[in-house]
Specification:
This protein is α/β, with parallel strands linked by helices and 178 residues long. Helix content is 22%, strand content 34%. The protein contains three helices and ten strands, in the order E-E-H-E-H-E-E-E-H-E-E-E-E. The strands form two sheets. A six-stranded mixed sheet has the order 5-4-3-6-7-8, sandwiched between helices. Strands 1-2-10-9 form a four-stranded antiparallel sheet. A hairpin with a 2-residue loop joins strand 1 (3-6) and strand 2 (9-15). Helix 1 (17-34) crosses helix 2 (50-59). The radius of gyration is 16 Å and the shape is globular. It binds inosinic acid and magnesium ion. Residues 48, 102-110, 155-157, 161 line the site of inosinic acid (IMP).
Length: 178
């Protein structure tokens, strides 16, 4: 198996690029079918989801929009380290079917945070698509509508996902070995 060293850690390929692309093709087709006729806007969550969002969007045949959002920590006096503000939304989504594009859903805290804030804009509905899901960790009530690949509770990098900012450029996904 191909290995790579990133900063102080070693990783080994666990999901080859072809398997990633097959998953993306499958969920793109499913979305084309499910969301036909709707006013769809995809929302890629930066930074991690940029590759996933790009590859999904190349395959989607719906007439639809895409935008990218980022969760930014509040700066200033209140140091509630957990609350993150959603930035970058300039589109009117009041009549739209929003499809959140995430790289990975782990605990689900991020997705809950995003849903809460997006609901304030009163879209028609919100769907969630994630390339990766850790089912043994995710215990929230919100259903994840489109899941590319389920993975065990291990730390991974590649295809947009990072270790301390590095490794996002790898076309395959790698798992931490030591
Ligand atoms: P959650 O809020 O616990 O669901 O985590 C979601 C975010 O944590 C993702 O969008 C990733 O940025 C990051 N994350 C979770 N698991 C991993 C991993 O295995 N490798 C790299 N980033 C991860
Ligand atoms: Mg992310």
């Amino acid at each position: 198996m191909k290995r790579v060293k990133i900063l102080d850690k070693e990783f080994e390929v666990s999901i080859p690029a072809e398997q990633i692309q097959a998953a993306i093709t499958r969920i793109s087709k499913q979305m084309d079918e499910d969301l036909k006729g709707k006013n769809v806007i995809f929302m890629g969550i930066l930074n991690g989801a940029f590759m996933f969002a790009s590859d999904i969007f190349k395959q989607i045949e719906l007439d639809c929009r895409i935008t990218f959002l980022k969760l930014a920590s509040y700066d200033g006096v209140r140091t509630s380290g957990k609350l993150k503000r959603l930035i970058g939304l300039n589109e009117d989504i009041s009549d739209a079917t929003v499809v959140i594009l995430e790289d990975i859903v782990d605990t689900g805290n991020t997705i809950v945070d995003i849903m809460k804030q997006l609901n304030g804009y009163e879209p028609k509905e919100i769907k969630i698509a994630t390339l990766l899901l850790k089912p043994s960790v995710y215990k929230k009530d919100i259903p994840v509508d489109y899941v590319g690949i389920e993975i065990p509770n291990e730390f991974i990098v590649g295809f947009g996902l990072d270790y301390d900012g590095y490794g996002r450029n790898l076309p395959d996904i790698y798992t931490l070995i030591k």
